[in-house]
What we know:
Mean pLDDT is about 80; it is low at about 5-25. This protein has a five-stranded mixed beta sheet. Strands 1-2 form a two-stranded antiparallel sheet. The longest helix is centred in the middle third of the chain and has 11 residues, at about 40-50. The chain has a single domain (about 35-120), classed as Roll (Nuclear Transport Factor 2, Chain: A), CATH 3.10.450. Strand 4 and strand 5 (about 80-85) form a beta hairpin. It is α+β, with helices and mostly antiparallel strands. It contains two helices and seven strands, in the order E-E-E-H-E-E-E-E-H.
Amino acid sequence: MEQFQAMYWVHRSMGDHGASKRLDRCLLLYIQSDMRYEWDEAKRLSNVEKHGIDFALVRAFEWDAAQVMSSRSSNEPRLVAIGPVGRRLHVLVFSIERRVVRVVSFRKANRREVIRYATQD
């Protein structure tokens, strides 16, 4: 069984000029290649209309190159991953329940997210 590991460090600046940074939190996530993906069909159609991206494309998401962080904007525990699909970075909002990745949102990364991905240690 192939296993992908996605690791993300959240840094917080300690000074006004950002010269001193420390590790604030580390999230270690293992996604196994045999995990299933699920989503709400109405949400998938809404995502296609809003972002032009079908949730089915998430199967090509490259977990081994992804940066993953927790999301604070929901009542349920969610994660946000930035990673490539082919040659383009995408943002995946998801939750994990047992061996299922539940897709909430999937879209192309914006310029700010691309820069953050490229400058992360």
